[in-house]
Structure formats: structure tokens, C-alpha cells
Amino acid sequence: MDSKLNLRDGILRGVDTARAATESALSAAEKLNSTLNAFLEIDRDGALNRAAKVDAVNPSDQSRLPLAGIPIAVKDNICVRGMQVSCGSRILGPYHPPYDATAIDRLIAAGAVIVGKTNCDEFAMGSSNENSAFGPVKNPWDISRVPGGSSGGSAAAVAAGIVPAALGSDTGGSVRQPAAFCGVIGLKPTYGRVSRYGLVAFGSSLDQIGVLTRTAGDAAAVLQVIAGRDPHDATTAEVPVPDYSAELNQDIRGMRLGISPTLLGEGLSPDVRAAIENSIEVYRGLGAEIVDIDLPHAQYAIAVYYIIATAEASSNLARFDGVRYGFRAEDAPTLKEMYSKTRDEGFGPEVKRRIMLGTYVLSAGYYDAYYLKAQKVRTLLRHDFARAFAKCDAVLTPTTPTAAFLFGEKVDDPLAMYLNDIFTVTANLAGVPGISVPCGLSSDGLPIGLQLLGPYWSEASLLRLAQAYLTADPFTAHPAVHT
Amino acid sequence: MPITETDIEKIAQLAHLEITDDERRTFAPQISEIVTYVEQLNAIDTSAVEPALGGLTPEGEQTVSWRRDEAQPCLGQELALDQAPDAAAGHFRVPKVLA
Predict the structure, then answer these.
(1) CB atoms inside a 10 Å sphere around CB B84
(2) What value of ipTM does the predicted structure carry?
(3) A178 alpha-carbon distance from chain centroid
(4) pLDDT tens-digit profile of A47-94?
(5) Which of A99, A190, A335 lies at the smallest CB-CB distance from B94?
């Protein structure tokens, strides 16, 4: 598939310009947005200005910009100065942040051009994009189906060929699940790998900024720029950032992939099961060793996740109170009524449901029974992963139990929606990195994703495994809605 | 544990959410079902398990985030108030605190 790196090479050789690349991304975004609703803001003037600055850099200095002239879309819960940040919610107003997130700062310094802000489930809470206050993103493969969530706009923008790369955020699978549903690569780095300064917080012990691209090389190039310690985010770790592209094309002979037979048990659609069984054979053919592993507590991951994530969300979202920024309800005579009315009118139903669930599990008398219990089972899950990684280099699972579902199919049944995250939430609870790689199409012609989870800081191996897979079994199909 | 509409009302108050009667009727069975689902964790013996605290990796835990206690550049009053729904005289103005 077309790579962003090729685009940059063209710009450096002078056969292409940042302006032309940006213009083409902007036109595609503008043209396809009435169908896909992937963008909440397209910043034509800002992007063209930025591109002109990149073109004005003299060619020898341009070569020091690893993402020179590359158009990138950013999920609308990450702050970019000069653009809105709505988090897919009415409560922010929309807000115009006076500063750039650290990841954005680094992208811009690397020569990238931010073209717009992508639609998402409200405050990144959802698996279908149906929770955006501004209408859902449509799946470019079939617009009657969800793009996944919560980074659905970022996944759709990359899948439709509008931009070669986008940023998302992943709290329980919000980068990997939409990547699987839209047929692109989605990488969630290790907790502490990428700074979250400027990312609106949802579940602080789980949130991580991730990358969506069409090639493994592109994911490596973007991660290279945004990874690393940031004094503005105390959770970023002092761990050297390796060269993610150096080992990308090395063969994977002898690498061990762990398969959990219990995880591949019930609940998988036949199409997903067949695609995963095929991908295991592809890896075997590449010389990987397939070993059985067990994650005995993975079956409890959804329960643990929906206690911890909602508890943290109820606390993080307490800041939206109509005082300092964003929307404020009118006709509230007292401060307390102003808080409650603002939050009632500003938040959508899923956000309210999660704030209430989080408030309940943290409330007096219930803390030990729910939150403390969940944190203990989280420890057990972390031990499961540590034991698994003693036997293998990465764990292979499906990214999702089914391909993209229809709009409205699960919207009235929150628990059924949550169960869709069964394969992805474990990585956030354990803090390990994960990547979703397109591995085939369902009988309905919808993309299916395989997921690889690795030990802490193993992004380079995950990217190498993704690259090896896509070289052996290239994903060449295009979605129905495409540039 | 079943969650009643009265419980929902109380939780909404704690969370500063003014919810409608319709929402109360919808949320009670939904939240009840989710709480029943998460209670499957009670089947696991965790008496000898330490709770996970935060999401840090071992390397993250060892990372020192202290800095010298010196003033750093910050937003400043003008930018901080710039998008307030109701700013007045360098402050955030709110409705009266006592009814």
C-alpha cells in the first residue's frame, strides 16, 4: 500500500511539495466528509500555512525533518493550537486550546502538517462512534456499518486514503478496534511511551496516544517522533526510544507467538476464526514458533476494566462544570444547580452512564467491594502476561470478536457493546503495547484485524511482526469510499 | 446487587448530574445489569493479592519526576480567562453559592 515515507521522499527530492500533499489531503477530506463525517474540523488555512513553511525550509535542512510535509489527522480529544477540541461532546463548547499537546509539538517540529480534527465517541467512550454528539463516523467499507470506536474518525480518514497517518487515543481498544473495523494498522504503545500532555483525560491509568496508518513503516516513523519522556507528563518513563525502523524488515524466524486456546473459544464469528487460523499459518510459514499460553484472568478483563475506567472517568470528568471554559447552562439560580444543569445538558447518555457507574463504585461503602477488588484482579492479569511473555515474544489474538457491526445493533444494550472490547482491554489493564494488523476480509467484504500484544517497550518487535505479516499476506483491498 | 431508581437519583446527585425521569428509568436496569456483571469478580480469591496502583510499568515507577521548586512559564490570567463562559474583573463569575 502507499506509504507516507514515499511521499516524504518525493518532497525531499523536489518532485512533490508539502503544499501539494496537503492540498490533496484537504480536498479529499472536504469531498468525503459529507459521506463519512470523519472530520469535525478541517483547517485548510492553517494546514496550507504550515505546508508553505515546510516548503520554505531549504532542502538540506528538510532532510532533518522525518515527517516533512506529511498530512496527519488528529483525534478531537488532543489539543492542537488554533483548532477546536470538542472530544465529540457539547460540553466543551467547542474549546480552542491555547497550547499544543506534546505529541503535536513533536509532529510539527518533525515537519508534519495537521490537516484537521477527527470525530470520536464522546470523551472517547464507545466502540461504535454512535456516542459522538456530532453524529457517527461511517465505515468507509460499508456506510451502514460502524467504523469502530472511539477513534473512528481517525481510522476512517486513514482507510479512505485521506491522510497516510492519524493520531488516536486508546483507553480500552480505541485505536486498535477501529483500525480492525476499517482495515488499517492501529498501534497502542506501552503505558508511559507517549506523552499525554494535551490529551483530554478519560482513564488516567489506561490512556495512551496511538497511531493509525496503512503500513507498518509509517506507524514506526510516526511513533519514532512522538515517543519519549516528557517532563509535562509524569507518567512518561525514562526509557530510551529505539530506532523503530531499523529492524522492521528483518525476518521473524524463531520468534515465538503465544496463542491462548481459551481466548479463541466462544463468541468468535466464523469469519474471524478462519482469518485468525489463517494468520497463524502465515506466521508459521514465516518461521515463527507457535506456543500455547494461558491468560487465566483475561475472562475477567471486561469486568475489571469497566470498574477502573468508569471510576477514573467519574473523577476526570468532574472538571467539566461550566466555570472555566466550554458550555454553561442558562437559568440556573445557584452554583450547584448550574453544575448539574450544565452537566446534564452538556454530556450525552453514555458519558452520564459511565460517570454514574464510576461514582457508584467509588462511593462510601462500595470502594473495597468494587474498585479495590478490580485493582487486585488487575494485578493477577499483569502476572498472567508476565508468565505468558516468559514463553513467547508476543501474544496473538483477534482484535475483535466480529467484523464491523451495523449502526443501531448494540446501541440500546451497553453491556453487549462493552463485551466487544474483550480482546483489547487487557493491554490497557496490563500497560503492554498492542497492534492491530489487517488480516483478511469477512464473507461480507469487511476487514478483520489480528492483534499482537507484546511485553513492555516491545513496539519494535510488534512493528516487525506486523511488517512480516503484511509482506507475506498483503492487504490490498480498498474500501468502497476511497479517494 | 440490584440498582433501583432511588439509587440512581442518589448517584446522580453525588455526580452533580441533573437527570430526567426518562433517564432514571433507562439507567436503573442498565447500570444494574453492568453491576451484576462486574460482581463476577467476587468469585476470585484475592486475599493474598496486592492491588495494582495506577498503570505504571516498573521503568515508569523508577522514573523520577521531581523538578526544582521554581516558577515556570504558565498561561497567565488573560489566556486562562479567555474562554470562560462568564469572566469579570480577572475572575470566573458564577451564580450565587448559597440558595
Answers:
(1) 18
(2) 0.96
(3) 7
(4) 999 999 999 998 888 889 999 999 999 999 999 999 999 999 999 998
(5) A335
